[in-house]
Structure formats: structure tokens, C-alpha cells
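WARN no homologs supplied; continuing
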Amino acid sequence: LQKRIDEIYTDICKKNKDGELVTKQIFLKLVNIVESESGSRAVSRRAYHNEFVGEAVESNLKRFIDENLLVSNYEYSSKDKLSIGTTTKLIQNATIEIAHEILLSSWDKLKRWLEEEKEAIILKNWLVGETRRWLEVRAENKSKASEEFLKGARLDQIVEFRDKNAFEKVGGLVEQENEFIDTSVEWRDREYK
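OK structure emitted
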């Protein structure tokens, strides 16, 4: 498996000058770092397709899916509570995940990337979840959305990472994440005044 992914990776890098960065961004979006008794370790993470932005990213994503290294699927959700005998419109969200979790421990390049970007991965994945929660609360009750804003040291850390472009190596921020950060900063500044 490592030999096969190295061949694909080498081919991508030959065809595209940004091949290494794009591949790194794709795979680091699909990993989470979790703490256990024996220390931290990487685990596969299911990401929504809309987290992947850009023509080069889409092209490489398709290649890795076609090569069966990544899996594309759908997740269904509903805004309404499901009950027996009711018809509910389901929302279909495309997802991507690593097909073979063994890649996390066997592909040397990925292991090196994980070590280099560990803090950014943890912070970015946390931000994805917080942004999703904020968007859901805002959609249900706009006046309660301010309760979900980023605050304190965590907000400062995220702004610092964004200012240093530290999230770029893990795929960057999507529009909603930037909006969430900016709105949180504006709210903090208003509260401070």
C-alpha cells in the first residue's frame, strides 16, 4: 500500500508543481489527533466534501478516490426530528475519508506531515466542529448565535494561527470558518468597548 501511494504521489508531484502541498492538505483534512493513555495518535476523520476547495484539490481528490485510497460517501441529515409515519426531507452531504487507516502509520510522508502540523490539525478540526454548531444555532435562533462565539485564549490562538497562515498547510479555512472567526472578533471587541 505504501509503495502504491508513493507511486501516485510521485506522479501527482511530477504533473503539478503544487502536488505536494495539495496532497498534504487533502490527507491532513482527513486526520484527527486524539489523546490516549499512551499519548497522542492519528485517527481517520470523515470530512465533508465542501471542506475541499480548489481545482487542483478536486482533481487530486478524484485521483485518490479512483485509486481506492480515499472513499467518497453520503451522510444524510434532517433539520426536523424524525418520527414514525412522517415524511421528512433529508439533506444529503457528501463525505470523504481515508479508505485504509493503516496509511496513518505506514506512509512515512504522512507520518512526517502529521508530526509537523499536529497543532494546526487539532485546532482546525476543533474549529470545523465549532463553526458547524454556530451555523446550526444561528439557523434555528439568530439571537442565540452569540452564545456560540469563540472567546478568550482559544479565539486569540485561532486568530494568531490564521494571521500566520498556519491553517494553509492543512487545507486553509472555508468561508464559513472565516466568517465565524471575524464575527467572534467583532463581538469580543464590542463587548470590550
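The mean pLDDT is 88.
OK
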